[in-house]
Amino acid sequence: MASSYALITWKPLSSLNSSATSKKCTTASLQELSTLNNRTQIFSSLQYKHKFHSGCRFSWKHGESFNLLAFSSSNGNWVEVEAGAPKEYKEDEFIVVNFYRFVFIQDPEEEVSKHLSFMQGRDIHGRIYVNEQGINAQYSGPSKDALAYVEWLKEDHRFSDILVQISPAVSGHAFPKLKLRYKPSLVQLEEGISHLPLLDPSMRATPLTPSEWRSKLEAVNKIDNSLNTVKTNCILLDVRNGYEWDVGHFQGAQRPDVDCFRSTSFGLSESEVIASDPLANVDREKTDILMYCTGGIRCDVYSTILRQQGFKRLYTLKGGVSHYLENEGSVGWVGNLFVFDARLSLPPSTYKPEISAEASGEQETSHSFAKCYICGSQVSQLRHRNCANLDCNLLFLCCLKCVDDFSGCCCMKCTSAPRLRPVLPGHQRYQKWHTYRDLELQGR
Question: Which of 150, 211, 231, 326 is most buried by a 10 A CB count?
Answer without folding.
Answer: 326
